[in-house]
Amino acid sequence: MKQKLQTISEELKTQIKILAGFVATFWVVVILNEVILERILVIANGCGLSRGLNALGIVPQSLVGLRGILFAPFLHGGFYHVAANTAPFIILGWLIMLRNISDFYFVSAISAFVGGLGTWLVGRPCSVHIGASGVIFGYFGYLLFRGYFERSFVAIAISIAIAITYGSLIWGVLPTRSYISWEGHLFGFIGGIIAAKLLSPSKGA
């Protein structure tokens, strides 16, 4: 019993370190960008020159804008933007980690890639898409559909809880506001569903 509690404690510490590392990166990047780099750094983004690190975001249908698939999740348009993404990233990311920490990395990678590539393909030319919300919508899609693919009691219970608690997020995949990347939300969500299918024990059935 003592050894089991120790194992759980060690896993929890590892989960906290991983999530804290990602969140710290988000905040350090936005602080550096807002306070220093927007004033001194000029970067070509495929549609001209832009100030600050946010020029490294996804720029649809621009070859140089493909680099945003890698960088965009770590970039935010100010302190309000990063603050709004912090809590759902921690909560949803931790729920994914509960089964296996490797699942967190897999879902994050698939959501970022599918979300980023989809945004690059269908987004408005010369728009710049940044933020971790595409990955967060991937977490949402994964947790929502994991119960459907796995059909286990725990997975279904988590899916229901997510639907009740975060169900309103689904409206974020619609083009309701011009300053919000609904493309990133939509394709990140799809990426999460794909990850749920790929990680499901019944995927080979």
Question: What does it look like?
Answer:
The protein is mainly α and 205 residues long. It has a single domain, classed as Rhomboid-like (Rhomboid-like fold). The chain is 65% helix and 3% strand. It contains 7 helices and 2 strands, in the order H-E-E-H-H-H-H-H-H. The protein has a two-stranded antiparallel sheet. Strand 1 and strand 2 form a beta hairpin. The protein starts with a helix and ends in a 6-residue tail after the last helix. The mean pLDDT is 93.
Task: Give a topology summary.
Elements: H1 2-40, E1 42-44, E2 49-51, H2 68-71, H3 79-97, H4 101-122, H5 133-150, H6 153-166, H7 182-199
Antiparallel strand pairs: 1-2
